[in-house]
Amino acid sequence: MTPLAYALLGLIRDEPRSGYGLRKVFETTPMGNYSSSPGSIYPALKNLEKAGLVESRATGKKSVLAITTTGETAFATWLAQPVTSEEDPNIALLRFAFLQNNRPQSLDFLMSYARCAHAKVIALRNFLDSEPGQALPLQARLAVYHGLKTTEAAAEWAADAYRQLNEDITP
Amino acid sequence: MTPLAYALLGLIRDEPRSGYGLRKVFETTPMGNYSSSPGSIYPALKNLEKAGLVESRATGKKSVLAITTTGETAFATWLAQPVTSEEDPNIALLRFAFLQNNRPQSLDFLMSYARCAHAKVIALRNFLDSEPGQALPLQARLAVYHGLKTTEAAAEWAADAYRQLNEDITP
DNA sequence: CCAACCATGTAAGCTGTTACATGATTGA
DNA sequence: TCAATCATGTAACAGCTTACATGGTTGG
What we know:
The structure is a homodimer.
Chain A: H1 3-14, H2 19-28, H3 38-50, E1 54-59, E2 62-67, H4 69-79, H5 89-97, H6 103-129, H7 131-135, H8 138-167
Antiparallel strand pairs in A: 1-2
Helix pairs in contact in A: 1-3, 1-4, 6-8
Chain B binds a DNA duplex through helix 2 and helix 3.
């Protein structure tokens, strides 16, 4: 299961869609970061179908893909994964985007996300303070600093999001 | 030429290195984001050699790879590319990290980088304000917001870096 | 009627990942 | 001497990108 496969599965879980409909989502929303062109989407959909996670349904004339029970289970398992430092943060974020109405899991996610972001910030600071880091030319140091700043912003985002989700509970 | 190939070429330009030496750089610095394991590095190095961008030199017992004149030219051309919105920002940043001692080109880079970051911020804000954006579940909105926050941080970084490089000129 | 969009795919080629394989050297 | 590190690769496999191919429908 690739990230693209999970993105497709999640979109289909939200509502049954055709291959073309899925492509439109990627073209017209920021989810476009996760994919692209027919050459990747259609084969991925076939894999999902082969694995029994989605099935083709004829609604009137059009054939759309709907998630199966097996698919729901597999998707829920994926959603429950905690964030780790090894994982691409963008893929973790993709999971978060699909965590609708699941406040406890969302809060767990944000916790582990913030932890990983923090760990990365510390690692980058340590690198900049180390001798190889000090010996770097200015531009290279600034490039590392870029990572530091954006990761700090990500950590702050996680803290903000945590607050927002908590406030949501007591209106 | 893949990003990995450019990363390798840049490291070899800075100083001649062996395949193993290159791997160590990826393992011990934040440049590790750009690669990984022998299975990708050694084939990539062979391609660089085949293309005449690097050549193998025997220094004492060890054989190290050095950049050729053709390689220098190709690398300089790559470095001069402006940042575009289509490009993966991480790859743009990789270019920046190699722009040592080239203040004018660095400033140009930061300008185009900031422009792209700004454009992305505006696009994300527009999306969040649009009807499909409004209809999103909270978690999905927050995920987009993550992109917004980190991109804003990236834009600020570019402005800061611009100032630092300018100050550097008049001590 | 023609352009644009709906809609689904296939094929070639390249890259990268994972895992395996091999052997030399060095420090405790 | 034994583990770690130096050092260089190969092979199987899967995935994505680009480009191509095909045909239906709809609005101006």
